[in-house]
Amino acid sequence: MRPGNLLYAQSGGVTAVINATASAVITEARARKIKVLAARNGILGALREELIDTSRESAAAIRALAHTPGGAFGSCRVKLKSVEQDRARYERLLEVLRAHDVRYFLYNGGNDSADTALKVSKLAAEFGYPLTCIGVPKTVDNDLAVTDCCPGFGSAAKYTAVSVREAALDVAAMSETSTKVFVYEAMGRHAGWLSAAAGLAGKGPDEAPHLILFPERPYDEADFLVRVKKIVDRVGYCVVVASEGIRTAEGKFVADAGAGKDAFGHTQLGGVASFLAGRVKDALGLKVHWTLPDYLQRSARHLASKTDVDHAMAVGTAAVRQALSGANATIPVIKRVSQAPYRWKIESAPLEKVANHEKTMPANFLRKDGYGITQAARDYLEPLIRGEAPPPYGRDGMPKYCTLKNTLVKKKLPPWQG
Amino acid sequence: MRPGNLLYAQSGGVTAVINATASAVITEARARKIKVLAARNGILGALREELIDTSRESAAAIRALAHTPGGAFGSCRVKLKSVEQDRARYERLLEVLRAHDVRYFLYNGGNDSADTALKVSKLAAEFGYPLTCIGVPKTVDNDLAVTDCCPGFGSAAKYTAVSVREAALDVAAMSETSTKVFVYEAMGRHAGWLSAAAGLAGKGPDEAPHLILFPERPYDEADFLVRVKKIVDRVGYCVVVASEGIRTAEGKFVADAGAGKDAFGHTQLGGVASFLAGRVKDALGLKVHWTLPDYLQRSARHLASKTDVDHAMAVGTAAVRQALSGANATIPVIKRVSQAPYRWKIESAPLEKVANHEKTMPANFLRKDGYGITQAARDYLEPLIRGEAPPPYGRDGMPKYCTLKNTLVKKKLPPWQG
Q1: What digits encode the pLDDT tens for the residues B81-92?
Q2: Residue numbers in A near B177 (CB within 8 A)
Q3: Is residue B225 a part of any domain in this protein?
Q4: N or C terminus: fewer CB in 10 A for chain A?
């Protein structure tokens, strides 16, 4: 019996290490003589029958993929709705999979993607098509259920903690005659995981970051400004980390400049740091600078966490193993086996336990005053940023990131009219 | 004869490697049995007689200083005016130097600092006080005259090129359904050196950055928008790098949000990327993201250029040697001896050739269309970002940056009433 092919697709926002997962998937599948097709630009490529033949890539290229940020095959922000609402797309997807003898579908994304993989699995069963659907976890937001953490988060967390510490050293040196308040805007729509990671930059009340604004707590401007003032008076300067998703007590996003909705229906954000900087300047008359690292924080492969890279590769390998071991509608998850020393293993979870759930930050991770993290949060976060895994650099001083050939396989179906 | 002490002071914006210079100064002076005092918060500390006794720091701390960003003794944005206008401050400075038997004054900064060191030198001669004044170059702006490049610039340049390449990989992967235009704001008030460095992120018209906006060319909005549109149509996305200092044909800063003047009289900038993003969104209706790395770009010691660290340490060592060799009113400068292979050496230049001059970018570094860099620019820039010099990391995943004791020496004078 021919084993059939494996289709791998990336979904949603990419990370510094999602390609490490892809590299591990391809490496493990090759070892087991399974051909890996990769959907161009995620699920859209699967629908359009734009399938990349990864067997055209050299072993060296697949190794280099493991240290290359971004999404090597392309990703997309497209969420399939319920089977009832989106039946034509699900059926087209199965048609493409069947045409290319795909028996294993690995969908690398967040909770929306887990949901899609689950639905595809159910519909394949309904159609009597033998398809194994496996989710592969990924998100800098660290908001997936069941898994202890999400590949992509650890590296973004390390970037955040290191960047905040470095900028704080700069601000400290200049604060007497220059910037007194520095505001760092961290990603995180609903959960303040990356803002919490910034807390690893320092310890004690006088070390930066002095104030963290979490989406889990309402933004209280008067209280915030009083605290900024007190810290500047005491320490000489104040470093603030603010989640892009902070909201007022009335539930309004503090900065919905550039507002709008993306394909997942999320509000698109952007201007918290500049807003807070303006308030500090106007209300306190202090010189303020701010930073919006934006995509830099999730693409900074040069500062990846070794733990995170290890996780990302392990879930890729495990996903292939689960697929070939007869599992279906499962997802590899990371389980923390022990805290000190930090040890972890990969387990398998049902997709339905991950699909569309969102893991929020435990209440005991936030300090009582709401402006910092607790020791419990440090204990959880620190192992995730541990270890360095720098990319190789070229003679030109730049990281040696790879570009794949991305050769499409020949289409077998009429064009998709979706 | 007692050799006298050496006073080292940092001036203006700090960098990822100014402490490497400080480390080299202290190491070289220790080897020659010269005691190094460091002014707390730059020239202000010298005026207030707040002098740090660096002999209290361990050899290990001084070694660690070489990989620690920020300014370990503090810096400040205070420019002394002419001797006529600011006579009381110059005289106080000489009084403090004399009280602490300082015979060598090393001032580590940009062209304003070179000017101050020169004036102090002249006044000391006028007063018959035997003082050697040496400038030590530093600035991420790379705008000092005579020297081939400025310590601090190479690391900021490497940060810029690597960050733009990483973010571009992210944008490329997501562009079909998400962000089409990404704007990166680089530091550089008058000269586009850091924006030019971003050009090292890619080659050819389809590689990011696709458009660079230099302060050397007037911002032509209509032309810019047409180009963005064309690139998005051709490549699928467009990465723009904009200098904070770009101006319209009328000479107005494109973004003088958060305006004001700093102590040097420079206009304070900040919002070019967000402004351009807004224009792209409104005029072209494209989804756009932007980043303002701000201080992250000049404090990112984790991504320092090895060449830059070598330069920074070499000018520190050379400054001490110049001081002890009987030179006065000089500054060590970097001379490029050969391009391929890149070789350099330190020479000595008169302070007056550096003081208050500003090196602009050679005209042949900018592409004819004004939106990119030439091969000549690449040849100049590339050696400066070459090599990696990462800091050691701790078990906690964070760089091991040092904190000095910064013990002040006992004051000998009445408080400064300046």
Answers
A1: 998 999 999 999
A2: 41, 44, 76-78, 263
A3: yes
A4: N
